[in-house]
Design a protein that fits this description.
By secondary structure, this protein is of the alpha+beta class. It has a single domain, classed as NADH Oxidase. Helices cover 37% and strands 14% of the residues. It has seven helices and four strands, in the order H-H-E-H-E-H-H-E-H-E-H. Strands 1-2-4-3 form a four-stranded antiparallel β-sheet, sandwiched between helices. Helix 2 packs antiparallel against helix 5. The radius of gyration is 18 Å and the shape is globular. Bound molecules: flavin mononucleotide. Flavin mononucleotide binds next to strand 3. The site of flavin mononucleotide has 11 residues, from strand 3.
Length: 191
Amino acid sequence: MGDGAFLALARNRHSVRGYFPDPVPEEKLERCLEAARLAPSACNSQPWTFIVVDDPELKGLLADLTSERLLPLNHFVKQAPVLIVIVVEPANLTSRLGSWIKNRDFPLIDIGIAAEHFCLQAVEEGLGTCMIGWFREAEVKELLGVPAAKRIGLLIALGYPQFDAAPTKHRKPLEETVCHNRYRLQPGKDV
Ligand SMILES: Cc1cc2nc3c(=O)[nH]c(=O)nc-3n(C[C@H](O)[C@H](O)[C@H](O)COP(=O)(O)O)c2cc1C
């Protein structure tokens, strides 16, 4: 029996680090944003704003803020025709209370889920994405007019992938990452 549509989608999604310059059709982008909008969040707080950066000049400046000249990191971001910037908005009162009482960062968790909804829908649309966590936050905020007090959670590069085939996934095996009923202490790490 096959995996089913969702698992196939999850297997197919991979970080795309080479894009064609073709623009992303508006309706495809909208469906990705809609998938992100539908994501769950603590207390349904929806603590996010998605800035779609597709103005070529602005996008180039933004891409520059994700890489360092001397590090082989994120130089591909410039190729993507669209960059999404996820601004962390203040959570609602119940989520904030929950975060405080339980010492959890709910908004960051929420944003991660929304970002993955976006990326999975992109695969469905024949598009590629790469989440970008390495960026110069203060400069990104200044460039896009985001108030200094807010945080940028994540960027997502979006566009048509140059390479179709999903590379082999390097993942820890299930046996290593799952245990049943009780935590399995790891010899050499926990004991
Ligand atoms: C929070 C987060 C931040 C990331 N930041 C970057 C980044 O700055 N540059 C990059 O090339 N990939 C980045 N990635 C992509 C990961 O390297 C990638 O998801 C991981 O290696 C697994 O590969 P896959 O996405 O192809 O399955 C990020 C992923 C996540 C979830």
